[in-house]
């Protein structure tokens, strides 16, 4: 790791094909800044991306990366981190990837609390398939597949994380470049699973949850008297559900990553060219 | 054929059948006798008939047979369930003092020994030792010196304290004495012991041990019968070598965790059974197209759907050969015996890394639940070789960077195998994706690159076909007109069947195939035989179909895989070329 890494070092030479004005540009810039600010470089960083517009991020960033199967990015990230705890692991995906097809993995990744960060680009719509309801779409949000709206309450991802025992819960807005990068950086620095739900507006298919909507409604917790270490206060904010908060809502400073508790501290790629020393003991156990 | 004794204990699930059977099997093994065990069981924790069967001989035993000489019946149903295997002179040990066993009628010609198992166990210190009393009685019937039980009782109960061990030894002796005193009968058995030292293990354990020996350091899985033993074996053991077993939330997660670990450079494995393979198939194509080395173990059981979870079937061959959308290069290896479970696991990891491809390691319930004895040298760890393939480090990475200094993780090398850089390697940063990609791992739909990458992945298989020894195992009479072919776990039964067939005047050549893909070319062997029979544990003959396909030569092929549909004029030309021999044989339509 070198101290002179710039955030542009994390940029690949592939031009994004996101729509002009897409929130994902800002989300990605913040991720790259946070990685550079925390002293990482592309050769020790592993980015895992899901499927959807957000999933393209692995192509536009420069690092070790895998763009996987829809909804399964988190388990891949966990596998990478456990096999080599020296790596910085960042997982990115959309609201469909994380809270619909991958909701089961989200709950269990939060529980496991492996030291990695998870950035969900939440645009409350399925963009790549051209505008269907997502798990965070509003109940009355009309789309091609839900003409009357989904008629189900949206998933509250922050509450889902809290209920699953999260040690770090944050929310950001991709358009507020500085605050977004700061929040992601805190997630990266957190000892455990750093979860950031990022409002990342879709300018093409979502005319409700727009930049203007978020600008008007967001409440920046750094300007409020909020202590993220106060779980009760965090719980109240998360369950209120009527405000779009930005900032670190909850952080457990006592968090110990799962891999540390389990004593995983080596790069598992390093193995001998034959059976390990003393392997005949394994056979003798069967006497 | 081995001079064998067939013994069983049966009762209700929860009666301690397995642990009692295992104590007896271990005692025989420690006494230098070969053992081959099997289980009848149901998928429930309590209730339902279950049995643990032991076949033992001084010679090696490779199969179960339809014959039972000594049966410990804890329930009346146990006798009914085994009527087909019991014969004239079979000894049935039961507790005639138990209210449920008072009316037991021992079938004509068989010898019933009513032993007050529970009462004698109480005399020794507790009714819980009733099964051990029965073991003592069985030792007397078999004329197997009871001291041989002591070591396995110590192994089983040692952590519960010396008093418990001593009580159990006493319980066994009370059972022995009861038979001695009450039954003045020569049972005609005389279990010979030898000075050999054998180890006793099952196929799942052999796979787990093979994985650790082969350098597997990451295992993620989700419990499922009959694969759970692989996971349980590795838990607590792989950690001693710097690895980790992770219980995932489902099979989807398990294979993705293993994929992540493999991308990070660890030798990684997951094991499951058919229903889990269904789920893992979602990610299988990703593993293959990202060229990630991964060993996926399928311990087959009866399907489809939940099927019969505790029963044997080799029904997943097509699934492992063809499962997944699109065309996926993969290797499929099927160990043919418990000890081969160890060696084929070692091989599987080498194939996975040398060819950067997923490898299905296909075992089955029969191998998983069979505990078999082997001389420990059969698992000689010095023979384990680890080949990691084209892994590059800082010193040699430069030759794999393109003109702009970018690492080419999917470089279309002549042999189809690209360089591999573990994360953390300076200048090795690269992405990969389930989308079709270029040599840098970046998404593309360019026809030329698509063709190049499809062919590159296919070339790995061709290279492996040439480089590796995809040999079969052969038994019986090499010159016989009758050829029997089988795959996977049927080998042991078929080997012994050769002896029976010989007695009945049939000469048979037996080919046992452990490699399903790539696999040995059997056309000459089939050509030389008059009758060809393929033996497998399924209804439709999945391997038979594969073998038939291999010897069928009539079909020529026109293929296209650039992502564009056939066009009429192009197709006419291709067909014409094929018919006239202008471009004979397999034709690959290239995009214009």
Can you tell me the overall shape of chain A? globular
Mean pLDDT of chain B: 94
- Spatially, the strands of the biggest sheet of chain A line up as 2-1-3-4-6-5-8-7
The count of strands of chain A amounts to 8
The number of helical elements of chain A comes to 11
Oligomer: heterodimer
What percentage of the residues of chain B does DSSP assign to strands (E)? 15-25%
- Structural class from helices and strands of chain A? alpha/beta
Q: CATH topology of chain A, anyone? A: Rossmann fold
| Widest sheet, order of strands of chain B | 9-8-10-11-13-12-19
CATH topology of the largest domain in chain B: Pyruvate-ferredoxin Oxidoreductase, domain 3
Structural domain tally of chain B: 5
CATH superfamily of chain A: Thiamin diphosphate (ThDP)-binding fold, Pyr/PP domains
CATH class placement of the largest domain in chain B? Alpha Beta
* C-alpha geometry of chain B: elongated
Number of helices of chain B: 18
Describe this structure in words.
The complex is a heterodimer of chains A (287) and B (592). Helix content of chain A is 32%, strand content 16%. Chain A contains 11 helices and 8 strands. Chain A has a single domain, classed as Thiamin diphosphate (ThDP)-binding fold, Pyr/PP domains (Rossmann fold, 3-Layer(aba) Sandwich). In chain A, helix 1 (23-37) crosses helix 7 and helix 4 packs across helix 5. Chain A has an 8-stranded mixed beta sheet with strand order 2-1-3-4-6-5-8-7, sandwiched between helices. Chain A has 287 residues and is α/β, with parallel strands linked by helices. Chain B has 5 domains: 5-197, Pyruvate-ferredoxin Oxidoreductase, domain 3 (3-Layer(aba) Sandwich); 201-383, 3-Layer(aba) Sandwich (Rossmann fold), CATH 3.40.50; 397-467, no CATH class; 473-544, 3-Layer(aba) Sandwich (Rossmann fold), CATH 3.40.50; 558-588. Helices cover 36% and strands 19% of the residues of chain B. In chain B, strands 9-8-10-11-13-12-19 form a 7-stranded mixed beta sheet, sandwiched between helices. In chain B, strands 2-3-1-4-5-6 form a 6-stranded mixed beta sheet. In chain B, helix 1 packs across helix 5 (147-157), helix 3 (117-124) crosses helix 4 and helix 5 (147-157) runs antiparallel to helix 6. Chain B is elongated and about 90 Å long. The termini of chain B are far apart. The model of chain B has no long low-confidence stretch (mean pLDDT 94). At the A-B interface, strand 1, strand 2, helix 3, helix 5 and helix 11 of A face strand 7, helix 7, strand 8, helix 9 and helix 10 of B. Strand 2 (64-67) of chain A pairs parallel with strand 15 (431-433) of chain B.
